[in-house]
Amino acid sequence: MTTWEMEPGGEEEELEAAAGLGRSGQLVMCGVLSAAAAAVLLIGLFWSLGFGAGVAQTTEVSGSEEQQCERPEDDLEVMLHAAIGDSSVDSCPAGWSWWSGRCFFFSVGLLEDRQWNQSAEFCRQQGSRLAVITDAAEMDYIQTVMRKFSRVPFLWVGLTDALQEGHWLWLDGSHLQHHMPCVKVEWDAEDRDCADLRGGGKVFAASCDAYSPWLCKRDVLLGAQHL
After folding, report:
1. What is the structure's pLDDT at 211?
2. What is the pLDDT of residue 20?
3. Considering the entire predicted model, what is its pTM?
4. How far apart are CA 178 and CA 170, in angstroms?
5. 152 Cβ contact partners less than 8 Å away, ≥ 6 residues apart
6. Residue boundaries of the structural domains of the chain
7. Residues facing residue 155 across a β-bridge
8. How much is the pLDDT for 69?
9. Which residue of 51, 96, 196, 213 has the fewest C-beta atoms within 10 A of its own C-beta?
10. String of b and e for 197-227 (b: at least 16 CB within 10 Å)?
11. Does domain 75-219 have CATH number 3.90.1150.10?
12. How would residue 220 be classed by pLDDT, with cut points 50, 70 and 90?
């Protein structure tokens, strides 16, 4: 028999015993029960207006922290952009790809591989620069395009620690994890001062003298001012 499954007539006796009352105190008992019910209502109101909201907020913050490094759920949008482009594609130079208000140039299959500095100079001549990847959605788009090529060992991007060993900076002057908090540079060493992007969104340190395809990026509306 559970706590709430009491024998007939036993419920009233148990309540009276718990309150220390006899049958003659039933009116007092009713008052006690009314006060208890009011207290329960007040507690429920406090929970919904105050503490409950705080718990919900804490849960929401905790969930957002856990999801900080997860991939955004916009893969379908990324694939659609990569597959069919957008009406703004005419705003990009020939041979460039449009995505989310920016133009991207993947040198794969178009030009011979170059060293990091040579790649950076090419991008500058085009009014752009080696790509500074600013968010996870942009990373997903780039990875989607990379998967189209039969063989892309890596792409030069605008990331280097040439100024200070181990202090990786994007070409916009921001720290490595300013835009992408979960990205880390692997294989870092004193003779590896330039970064390349590989499959899975991974970034590796490499010799700046190595030859590789590269990725340029420019803003459609503002040209080279905001890349």
Report:
1. 97
2. 40
3. 0.62
4. 9
5. 108, 146, 213
6. 10-66, 75-219
7. 197
8. 56
9. 51
10. beeebebbbbebebebbbbbbbbbeeeeeeb
11. no
12. confident
Tokens encoding 152: 């892309």
Residue type, 64: S
- Does residue 98 contact residue 146 with C-beta atoms inside 8 Å? no
Residue 58 β-bridge partners: none
Per-residue pLDDT band for 195 (boundaries 50, 70, 90) equals: very high
Distance (Å, whole) CA 70 – CA 68: 6
